[in-house]
Amino acid sequence: NKTYKTWILISDNTAAEIRGKILTRPVDKVAVKGKAKAILIHEVLALGENETPKLRKIIDLTMLGFDHYLAMRFQQAMDCYTQILGLNKEDHLASYYIDRCKGFLFFPPPSDWDGTYISHSK
């Protein structure tokens, strides 16, 4: 949570189990310190019954932006995250990804990059 300035992060497996009941969005593909295998993590946003059109748009844009990011389409990812900031100027995850994508536009990852972020702390 410290890295992304989020409140609650869950694994992809947990997100799949609660789909429909709890609203989440993808955050990152991470390999934590001491682990070789990466996992997809999600941010918990709200109970499913509290979905609003604005929240749905943020979730959909995050999913699209993250897909672009993983495909190394960093400008398109930035465009999605910028739209999120237009809906919620305090969205820390969107700001985080805009900065990360800017970095990759100047210093692209290697061609065999799979999107995994290596966390150096737990």
Main beta sheet? 4 strands, mixed
Structural class: alpha+beta
Radius of gyration: 14 Å
Number of strands: 4
The side-by-side strand order for the widest beta sheet comes to 1-3-2-4
Distance N to C terminus:
10 Å
Question: How large is the count of helical segments?
Answer: 4
Shape: globular
Q: What low-confidence regions span 5 or more consecutive residues with pLDDT below 50? A: none
Fraction in beta strands: 15-25%
| Sequence of secondary-structure elements | EHEEHHHE
State the helicity in percent bands. 40-55%
Overall pLDDT: 92
Structure description:
By secondary structure, this protein is α+β, with helices and mostly antiparallel strands. It is 44% helix and 20% strand. The chain contains 4 helices and 4 strands; from the N terminus they run βαββαααβ. Strands 1-3-2-4 form a 4-stranded mixed beta sheet. A hairpin with a 7-residue loop joins strand 2 and strand 3. Helix 2 runs antiparallel to helix 3. The longest helix is centred in the middle third of the chain and has 18 residues. The model has no long low-confidence stretch (mean pLDDT 92).
List keywords for this structure.
single chain; 122 residues; alpha+beta; four-stranded mixed β-sheet; 4 strands; globular
